[in-house]
Amino acid sequence: MAATHQHWTLDQAIELEAALAAWDGSRPPAPPPQTGSDRGAVFKQWLATRPAPALGARWTGALSLAAGLGVLAALIGGAGAAWGTLDRAVGGVHVIWFLAGTLGAPWLLFVVGLAGWAVRRRWSFGWIARSLELLANRLAGEAVARVLAQAPASSDLAPVVGWRLARHLQLIAAAFHGGAAAGLAAMVLFKQVGFFWETTTATAMESLLGGTVRVLAAPWSLAWPQLLPDVAGTRRGIGWTGGGESWWPFLLLTLLVWGLLPRLGLACLAVWKERGTLARWSLQAPHHRRLWRTLTGVQRGDDPPGPLDGALMIDLGGSAPDREALRPFLLRRLRLNPTGWETLSVLDASQEAAAHAALHKAPGGIVLLAEGWALAPRLLEQTLRTVRQAASGRRVVVLVGNRRADGHLQPPTADERSAWERFGDSLTGAEIELVFFEEGNR
Amino acid sequence: MSASIPEGIPTFAVVGRVNAGKTATLATLLEVDDNEILRVSATPGETTAVQPLPVRYDGEEWVRFLDTPGFQQPVEAMRAIGRLASGRTPGPAEIARFVRDRAGDFPDEARLLDPIVEGAGVLYVVDPSKPLRDPFLAEMEILRWTGRPRLALLNPQQPASPENDRLWRERLGSAFNLVRTFDAHAARYEQRRRLLEALLQIEESHAERIRHVLDAIDAEWVQRREDAAEAILDFLEHALALRVAEPIGDRGQAIPARLERQRNLLKERYFAQLANQEAACTKRLLAIYRHHLIAPDIDPGAYRSLDLATAETWRKWGLSRWQLATAGAVAGGAAGMAFDLGVGAHSLGAGTVLGALGVGAGALIKGGSLPELRVKLGRGVGLSHCNGRTLVVGPPASPNFPWVLLDAMLLRYAAILDRAHGRRDAAVLRISTDQSRVRLLPADRRKVLQRWFNTCLKNSPDRGREPEVFVVLLEALAHTVNTPSRSPGVPVAEGESR
Q1: A304 in B contact zone (CB under 8 Å)
Q2: Digit-coded pLDDT (tens) for A285-323
Q3: Closest CB from B52, B57, B471 relative to A298
Q4: Is B475 within 8 Å of chain A by CB?
Q5: A153:B463 CB<8 A
């Protein structure tokens, strides 16, 4: 049960799942050479022998494209969010709304998504991830979507897909913060905007905002204390006419340090986790185990054919002897195993037809069972002619015995025996094997 | 080389007196329980001609066995061969002449000696419960004269007396390279393997090919165990999730007798479906182990296999009450711990403690009681004629239910392994209620299973845990292999000859 040492990529993992979904359970004509118990190596070799529709690459490519669109939208969204906090009437940016919209809201979404995952224990990151996945599925096509629809059944693949989605989500979020930073820079450079804050609970908010600013600026405040904004002096009063330029370096650094960098860090973490999950991929799901057994297991050949001593017994006249009692004699004396019983020279035409139809079946030979007293040369000659034609080289035996009341056979009388022998000698053409039932051989 | 002795393939002719059990030995060794391929019966002379039985793996033949007719006139044949040697000790040349010139007088002896003359090794099968008479000595002498590698197999068809056994071994020891015991009606995998290993000792020139067969049957055995574990895993998952439901009309809800009748009908349907699943799993296990004659002991019409209504079933199968309580406490504790974590450990571990105590105590109290099927009148789809109420039945409320199911399958597995392919009684697979297999599982393995059972009972099997459960099942099946069932297993049908 060792994990594979040849690491997989998500593309390959999806490719494998797609190949397994299309696999009919058959063993390839030339199974891959076994590499110890390294499932990964054996599966990769198997994958190489399959037609390569490149579904994995198509899906991850589509996901990257969808994520790229998401990054673009997030850049615009971030810039828009920054611009949205600009009060055009007074030409100033409301710093509280700026911090809440460009930093607080994305992180709140992150916390909600994380809590949802912790509670539901499912590899889903909310509606953004779902939208991304749906868009990727749409871009990649139906075939990939079908494979990924089965991915939750493969408990190993679902977290890998989850980490890939997480990576893209963090990049999108980073783009949002980046867009906000760009928007802020554009406002400062091109519109020379001012910065302010206002509230009805001035003292409380000043204290809260001051505390928040100190916490947010902690990473650089010791080195550059001049980059701390003047909180008290930027409260918008009745006669506010602008100013508050000390805010923009702080806001820019806050977006970089508390937005962009952590998101990039999380994206790197997702990459690392994805690789780690794939490296630990044990390939032990039921369908992986089935494939492993098929590829590496031994295959026993078909059972040999049975003995070719099966004989067709044709009961002439319908004496209906006890078949079980007669069988040991047939096995030991004739070395034939009675596998079929038919009747000839009876009134029932259907029985006769069945006997004629069965003549071609038994590989061992044909045994005509006649009663000693019932020798009818003309009838027998005719029957033998038919049987010989059908036998085409197989053994033909005429077994002579008389049926007792209990169904067992008994040997023919001496007169009957000599009559049968004379009849046998008189036959021309192919020889027949004439056998008399003997008591001791029963 | 003749047609029955291919070049480069070690070939062994299985010879012996008529009705010594040659074909049964081969049937067990090669796992063939089909009379169309290998006829085994009490009728002497059942084998009429030499029958090649190739052992093929991965499309290539590695070893070949030959089923032969039995010796019929060994003493006369020995004398005839002696005469061909003109006073000298006969050897392979005289045996070859005998086969060529005296086939008319000794058809069976000529047939069975022919492949040996052509180069086949000898597997001589005797029944040590029979007294050692001169015809046997003649057979041994003839086989000694062939000069081929010889292995003698003691196939006791009845218990042999110690004196008989000693005599046979002494005599065989002087004429054969190796003497081994192989009970064709009771031999398990280990005995089959030992027999093949013995071939290595008498036929060194083809050691490579025989070793390949040994490796192949080992791999096949492991593969089968994995297939069996898959089958049991599938069965448990589906059986634990099984529920039968039926919409209940307004009148059905209003009249208690009608509701009761509906409930009983659903219970019957539940047990019938459970029996079908159990039968399907047992058939799958039988097919994995190449058994075709034996039938599962399950009748979906009258649920007799597990007999869940019988107190004895619940007392003897599944876990003991204390084991159940321990397993339940672990599962309950795990659920409680999830709660503790969910509230950020503000509960100070109370969830874990209460969960463990509550579920453990419940299992201890309810573990020994007769199980009642869970019956729930739930709110279903709002159909106009039934007011949206649905009656749902199953599974039994007893915490021992999954363990009883697992025990039933482990015991069936043991009975299947105990069944030799040389037997031809088309009996029903019977399992014993004398011993529980799951009680022998180590505590940590029981915990793994209990957690997975809980998710299956909730109809959402934990896929992440499933590989671990698979490994635990594999270990349990391996333990079954090493612990032969003391159950009555498969009874010999009346009148059946061994």
Answers
A1: yes
A2: 888 999 998 888 888 998 888 888 888 999 988 888 999
A3: B57
A4: no
A5: yes
How many residues in chain A?
442
Please state the pTM of the whole predicted model: 0.78
Cβ-defined contact of B36 to A1 (cutoff 8 Å): no
CA B453/CA B462 separation, integer angstroms: 9
Question: Do residues A162 and A278 touch, judged by C-beta distance below 8 A?
Answer: no
Contact B122, B143 (CB under 8 A): yes
Summarize pLDDT for B263-296 with one digit per residue, the tens.
888 888 898 899 899 999 999 999 999 998 888 8
From the list A347, A351, A384, the residue with the least C-alpha distance to A366 is A384
3-state secondary structure at position B151: strand
**Among chain A residues, CA nearest to B464:** A155
Q: Is A307 exposed, middle or buried (0-12, 13-18, 19+ CB in 10 A)?
A: buried
Report d(CA A31, CA A298) in Å as an integer.
Answer: 11
**Measuring CA to CA, how many Å separate B475 from each of A2, B229, B289, B440?**
16, 9, 18, 11
Interface contact B44-A286, CB threshold 8 A: no
**B301 in A contact zone (CB under 8 Å):** no
Contact B178/A at CB under 8 A: no
Asked if B220 lies within 8 A of A297 by C-beta distance, the reply is yes
Q: Is A282 on the interface with B (CB under 8 A)?
A: yes
Partner B contacted by A297 (CB < 8 A): yes
Q: Which amino acid is at A257?
A: V
